[in-house]
Amino acid sequence: MRVEHDGETGVQTLASDVDVVDTFLSRARGLMFRRSIPDDYAMVFTFGDADERDLHMVFVPFDLDALWLVDDEVREKKRLRSWRGLGAAVADTVVELPAGAADDVEIGDTVRIVE
User: Name one Pfam family in it (predicted).
Assistant: First the structure.
């Protein structure tokens, strides 16, 4: 499984090591208590519908790039700072990546989870 970005410069793989979290407990834990993540890693939060989705960085000791998607379209992008970052937007899928991995992603681009 991988996360692909389709933007102005073509298709680019953002992550090839992907964890999909789709249960209440796995979503609640997210990346808390991890010391680091690999450069090619993504955590993907999947939901059945588009709604307001909040992220926090409590107990996450490294910065992240977060993407809020609706039907694979990027609706919001934010760099979340370790320990104190907060973010919220409407999404049916949220993707967390290492800080800098989403630098080329823009609002309106397509980001897909590919099997």
Answer: DUF192
